[in-house]
Description:
Keywords: Membrane, Transmembrane, Transmembrane helix. Pfam families: MmpB (PF26627). By secondary structure, the chain is mostly helical. Helices cover about 70% and strands about 0% of the residues. The protein has one helix spanning about 10-40. The longest helix has 30 residues, at about 10-40. The termini are far apart.
Amino acid sequence: MLWSDPENEPPKELRDTQDMLRRLGVFVALAMILTMLVIGVR
Length: 42
């Protein structure tokens, strides 16, 4: 790879989408844990 090659970085839209999906995945995981706790309490 030459020093003059462009950066191998995804476009901003793709990075934003990946960040959103990551946050959504964390939110879904927390919601599932909370749901299991609520079901377990009953």
